[in-house]
Design brief:
Blueprint (H helix, E strand, L loop, with lengths): L2 E11 L4 E6 L5 H5 L2 E4 L2 E11 L2 E6 L5 H6 L4 E5 L13 H4 L3 E4 L4 E9 L6 E5 L5 E5 L5 E5 L4 E4 L9
Length: about 160
Amino acid sequence: MEKIKIGKIVNAVGLKGEVKVYNYSDSEEVYERTPEIYAGDKLLQVQNVRMQKNMVILKLSGIDDRNAAEAAKGTELFITEADLPELPEGQFYIRDLIGMEVEEQGGSFHGVVTDVLQNTAQDIFEVKRDDGKTVLIPKVDAFVQKIDGKERLITVTLIEGLTDL
């Protein structure tokens, strides 16, 4: 089963073994609904979850004092695919979008999604074409007509010149 990185221990908190976690997921709820997480290669029980400003504070089994918490600094945290919540119809995890083929409505092939950029107003598909050129396609209704998870195909309608940028 594939492990999915959800965070990284960045510091110790207090004396009882709590750790401060930089959260890679879009929600801290993943820590609350997952009874066990991997800290590196060790499967640990989640004993307590709380928030402190925008950081997740965890109490994990096996990390019982400040020394153990300090030693855990830098450890990445993972869940398994089975721990991922089911998404509503029409929504996808980024990891599921990567590798999907992209074609323009009408059948002209554009390429394969290599990344999804999320630091903008809307998500942007990074698409590598057969000729090696990379094209950025905003994930907006005006461009993205359909995402078919079963066929692993994204159908788009592009404006003239978008692929020439």
